Amino acid sequence: MLDNTRWKPSVTVAAVVAHDGRYLLVEEMTAEGLKLNNPAGHLDPGESLLQAVAREVLEETARTFTAEALVGTYLARFRHVRTGEDITYLRFAICGTVGEQIAGRRFDAPVQRTLWMTPDELRACPERHRSPMLLKCIEHHLAGQRAPLSLLHADASLYDSAS
Fold first, then answer.
1. What is the CATH number of domain 10-146?
2. DSSP of the chain, one letter per residue?
3. Structural domain boundaries of the chain?
4. Cα–Cα distance between 87 and 81 in angstroms, integer?
5. Which neighbouring-strand residues pair with 117?
6. What pTM, to 2 d.p., does this model score?
């Protein structure tokens, strides 16, 4: 019997935001306890990568995000110890800037708070990272790795509600 199941990685976006030598992070509740991450999340149907990263930053930090460049793409596999779930993530890390926190706007439920940390502070606490991609994205940003946003294309068919 043939297995016609197509393997599909989980597509995510992550914002890399630096200001005065510190990076914007979220502290979120996970099955493994409180963990640090870039403002990040899953790509939703009918949205571009740039729309997704702006939405995720707003939901997780209550700040608007202005994308500037693609830092990199990352592929990583995770096996959750507790659930046994095996997921491969395809992450698009996009750097940019944020506005001031919007008064009265709440964070998405798993996010407990936002904080700004230096690269050295992050390097000192790998056990608190939700993903190894967190530090990898920041290290690449620190190294000046940037690609133009024009590399990210979204065909008009993505927004066609008749499909």
1. 3.90.79.10
2. ----PPP-PEEEEEEEEEETTEEEEEEEEETTEEEEE-SEEEPPTT--HHHHHHHHHHHHHS--EEEEEEEEEEEEEEE-TTT--EEEEEEEEEEEEE-PPPTTPPPPTTEEEEEEE-HHHHHT-GGGBS-HHHHHHHHHHHTT--B-GGG----GGGG-TT-
3. 10-146
4. 12
5. 23
6. 0.92
Cβ-contact 41, 28 below 8 angstroms: no
State the SS3 of 75-105. EEEEECCCCCCEEEEEEEEEEEEECCCCCCC
Amino acid code (one letter) for 135 = L
Residue-wise pLDDT for 36-76, tens only, equals: 999 999 999 999 999 999 999 999 999 999 999 999 999 99
